[in-house]
Design goal:
The chain is 77% helix and 0% strand. The chain has one domain (17-224). It is built from ten helices and no strands.
Length: 225
């Protein structure tokens, strides 16, 4: 009876920091979705609001102080709602992709288990963003350079800056947990689980490179004018 009760224990978000292996066991037996998803969505929305209200808007085209405040308010509301809606949708799409890959590999993992896994390991990223942004606001730092990223120490811009910004403590931690979770819950091989994590991390680097290249183009275009 005691063993059954132990098996039915719900996975805990904070447990992903203290004892992730135990949480993976619980997710496999009792994959929960709603309470952790709501908590992560609310925390992410709060971080988005914190960032938005601390952005310095540069007046342009004859904007008054009231116009700037109105623009900041609209930006904050749109950002908050976008996060509240976009975050769960992003988790669902990511879970669908990973679940599809796992099923191709003949895994018996259910979609609910995969979705629960994605939500719980995402706690690491959300906490990382929260810590970074709170410290940045406190020290009036640059919101574009996360304190836990490699680019914080280099201070590069453009393509290199975006790539170094992705090489970040909590992001690496996230992908390590993803590998372990795929091994423990989806029962994929060590090699396949690690390969999946590396591929997705490389895709993130490619996306960052493209974003950096676009920013460099815009900067050069503005200077050229």
């Amino acid at each position: 009876m005691a063993e059954k009760k132990s098996q039915l224990k719900k996975p805990a978000l904070i447990g992903m920091i203290l004892n992730p292996n135990e949480q993976f066991k619980r997710i496999q037996i009792n994959p929960i979705i709603w309470y952790p998803l709501i908590i992560l969505s609310l925390i992410s929305m709060a971080v988005t609001i914190l960032v938005a209200i601390n952005i310095d808007y540069i007046p342009s085209f004859g904007m008054t102080e009231k116009d700037i405040e109105a623009a900041k308010m609209v930006g904050t509301i749109v950002g908050a709602l976008g996060t509240l809606i976009g975050l769960p949708v992003g988790y669902v799409l990511y879970a669908v992709i990973l679940w599809g890959i796992a099923k191709k590999a003949k895994s018996t993992v259910t979609f609910k288990q995969m979705f629960s896994l994605i939500i719980f390991i995402s706690f690491i990223r959300v906490i990382g963003q929260s810590i970074n942004q709170m410290i940045i606001v406190a020290i009036n730092g640059d919101q574009d350079h996360l304190l836990t990223s490699l680019n914080y120490f280099v201070g590069a811009n453009g393509v290199l800056g975006e790539i170094l910004g992705v090489i970040e403590l909590f992001s690496i931690w996230y992908y390590i947990l993803l590998s372990i979770g795929l091994i423990k819950i989806a029962k994929l091989s060590n090699r396949m689980s690690i390969s999946i994590s590396i591929i997705f991390f490389c895709l993130l680097l490619i996306f960052a490179s493209v974003q950096g290249a676009i920013e460099e183009y815009h900067v050069e275009h503005i200077i050229g004018e």
